[in-house]
């Protein structure tokens, strides 16, 4: 059979609900911080089950577009619900665990070496990255550029050309995992605090403490809603 005549994929019902919610937010002029209608109301108005509405809300939550407050409803985190295709979410969910494993293996060693080898100029760049991330968060952003600068500064401070090259080969995947982590509710300030502990261990030349602090940080990075999501549920 010609590949062009392969079976058509039908949109899952919850994907259609996501599209309707996107249209509702745009048409209603809802803004970040506003609450979406209750699941029961949405199910009745859309003529679908509450399970389909709940699945749609999870897709929006996974992408950092809404926050579900236990017993308190669902609130917009952004001005619009511009969602990624479900297939892209599924692919990112598939590769994320491998990326996180690689980051833990590489970056804990980099933090250990940075504590042993860092120079004053290395430490100055680490501190500058922390300042940049702090300023971004205080301005209401997630601190993604400061986060990138911090990890790059730790990598440079390790003075290991081969490990730095390994990091460059997965830079795109690392950026993806960074974005995934920082979009979690209340995550940016927690990540900043963890960066500060890593930096302090590096400043003091405490190699084991720096590696442990980095490992704890990367375990936090790995706790994202995407990995708990079942697209077929």
From TrEMBL:
It holds the Pfam family GntR. Residues 11-79 form the HTH gntR-type domain. CDD domains: WHTH_GntR. Keywords: DNA-binding, Transcription, Transcription regulation. InterPro entries: GntR_C, TF_FadR/GntR_C, Tscrpt_reg_HTH_GntR, WH-like_DNA-bd_sf, WH_DNA-bd_sf. It comes from the Bacteria. This is FCD domain-containing protein. It comes from Saccharopolyspora ipomoeae.
């Amino acid at each position: 059979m010609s590949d062009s005549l392969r079976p058509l994929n039908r949109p899952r019902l919850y994907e259609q609900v996501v599209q309707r919610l996107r249209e509702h937010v745009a048409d209603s002029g809802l803004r970040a911080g506003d609450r979406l209608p209750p699941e029961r109301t949405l199910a009745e108005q859309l003529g679908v089950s509450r399970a389909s509405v709940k699945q749609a809300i999870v897709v929006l939550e996974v992408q950092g577009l809404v926050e579900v407050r236990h017993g308190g409803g669902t609130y917009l985190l952004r001005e619009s619900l511009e969602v990624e295709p479900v297939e892209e979410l599924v692919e990112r969910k598939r590769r994320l665990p491998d990326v996180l494993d690689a980051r833990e293996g590489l970056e804990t060693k980099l933090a250990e070496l940075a504590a042993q080898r860092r120079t004053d100029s290395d430490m100055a760049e680490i501190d500058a990255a922390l300042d940049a991330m702090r300023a971004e968060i205080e301005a209401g952003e997630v601190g993604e550029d400061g986060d990138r600068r911090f990890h790059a500064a730790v990598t440079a401070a390790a003075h290991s050309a081969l490990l730095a090259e390994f990091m460059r080969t997965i830079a795109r995947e690392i950026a993806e995992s960074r974005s995934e982590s920082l979009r979690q509710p209340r995550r940016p300030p927690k990540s900043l605090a963890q960066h500060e502990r890593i930096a302090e261990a590096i400043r003091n030349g405490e190699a084991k403490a720096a590696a442990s602090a980095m490992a704890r940080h990367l375990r936090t990075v790995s706790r994202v809603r995407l990995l708990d999501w079942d697209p077929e549920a």
